Amino acid sequence: MLGDLAARALRLLPAEAAHRATLALLRRAAPLLSSAPPDEARLAVDALGLSFPNPVGLAAGFDKDAQVPDAMLKLGFGFVECGTITPKPQSGNSRPRLFRLQEDRAVINRMGFNNAGMEAAAARLQRRREHGGVVGINIGANKDNVDRIADYRRAFARLAPLASYVAVNVSSPNTPGLRNLQQRDELERLLGAIMDERARVVPAKPVLLKIAPDLEAASIDEIADVATAAGVQGIIATNTTVARPPGLRSAHAKEQGGLSGAPLFSRSTEVLRQLYRRAGGKLVLIGVGGVSAGADAYAKIRAGASLFQLYTALALQGPGLIPRIKRELLDLMARDGFANISDAIGADAHMYEAAT
Ligand SMILES: Cc1cc2nc3c(=O)[nH]c(=O)nc-3n(C[C@H](O)[C@H](O)[C@H](O)COP(=O)(O)O)c2cc1C
């Protein structure tokens, strides 16, 4: 496929230059791209009051400025999450800040919320409003603002009316102190502020919290409880990890930043499983971290995810990955006798408990 050839050529560039070139290409090609064939009804998911044609989502960070959501939907994603978007534009950390760990099927990034700010994103989202499709917006705080909660509130008020759902990102490792917002008191204050704003501006808009994988079991339960009490609709698990699992082989493995891709798979799936056990039925869970094939996606769903997202595998493999994952998922469902993908949600959630 042409897209995969392009992906191979882009691999010759430094990682961030390749990403910029990909976005430029997608921006130009978007109107010419034909849409992926319609999805089989067995892959459709109803969640968060939205209809997803398939459960494969593009994770935040690929399209930080909402430049190409329609191109990504045409490539076959069931939904796209743009961002992280902050109120003011910011340039992020100094370069290099994005590293491929080819041998480990992974990436390390310390981008630091580089983005053009909420006004630029709002203008683009406004222009594509009539196009349909599920496009979520992921919001964050500017690095230099001491009042972080005020930033989330501002970004929410501006962008929520233009988004299918809003993801509140408190899990980037690359903005100092941001992850502290995952602690009970801070989280209660943040979600309280967001849900107030929601009641005022967009009462029915789904709000999800995006969390880190680097949390103790007790904190994961606490976050699930606080999110449920606040009236949030779901949790996205997980962002990148600051841990470095043993066995990484790439030269860049010791770079600072968040690790994503294959080495994140088992930890992020374990967090998901724990969330499902604690709050399944009360919160919609989106699984993300290390999905690079249908079997990985299926494992996320069986651990409790209603939907899943990916980024790193797309960067490493190219867009042929999307139809491949869907095909493999359909095969796995047929093997196990699930008529619809949603029937598999949480099928393995109690696996760990049963094994111990
Ligand atoms: C280069 C890069 C930039 C990212 N930027 C963001 C971001 O701005 N906001 C966010 O919530 N997650 C961000 N992420 C995290 C992804 O959304 C995802 O949670 C993580 O990479 C795990 O999924 P994966 O293993 O499929 O990549 C970024 C990831 C990468 C690799």
Description:
The chain is an alpha/beta fold. The chain has one domain (2-355): TIM Barrel. The chain is 38% helix and 16% strand. The chain contains twelve helices and 13 strands. It is globular. The N and C termini lie far apart (45 Å). The structure holds flavin mononucleotide. Flavin mononucleotide (FMN) binds at residues 59-61, 64, 83-84, 98, 107, 109, 111, 138, 169, 172, 210, 239-240, 260-261, 264, 288-291, 310-313.
Topology overview:
Blueprint lengths: L1 H9 L4 H15 L15 E3 L2 E3 L3 E3 L10 H6 L4 E7 L12 E4 L4 E4 L8 H10 L6 E6 L8 H12 L6 E4 L14 H18 L5 E5 L5 H14 L3 E4 L20 E4 L3 H15 L4 E5 L5 H10 L3 E4 L1 H6 L3 H16 L14 H5 L1
Parallel strand pairs: 3-4, 3-13, 4-7, 7-8, 8-9, 9-10, 10-12, 12-13
Antiparallel strand pairs: 1-2, 5-6, 6-11
Helix pairs in contact: 5-6, 6-7, 7-8, 8-9, 9-11
The structure holds flavin mononucleotide.
The site of flavin mononucleotide (FMN) has 27 residues, from β4, β6, β11 and α10.
Short description:
This protein is an alpha/beta fold and 356 residues long. The chain contains 12 helices and 13 strands. The protein has one domain (2-355): TIM Barrel (Alpha-Beta Barrel).
Assess the beta-strand content as a share of residues. Answer: 15-25%
Shape: globular
The first-to-last residue Cα distance is 45 Å
User: Which segments are poorly predicted (pLDDT under 50) over 5 or more consecutive residues?
Assistant: none
Number of helices: 12
Specify the CATH architecture: Alpha-Beta Barrel
The total tally of domains equals 1
Number of strands: 13
The bound ligands are: flavin mononucleotide
Structural class assignment? alpha/beta
Tell me the quaternary state: single chain
**Taking all residues together, what is the mean pLDDT?**
95
CATH class: Alpha Beta
In the sheet with the most strands, the strands line up as: 3-4-7-8-9-10-12-13
Q: Radius of gyration in whole Å, from Cα?
A: 19 Å
User: Could you name the CATH topology?
Assistant: TIM Barrel
Order of helices and strands: HHEEEHEEEHEHEHEHEEHEHEHHH
Largest β sheet strand count, sense and barrel closure: 8 strands, parallel, barrel
> Helicity range of the residues?
25-40%
**CATH homologous superfamily label:** Aldolase class I
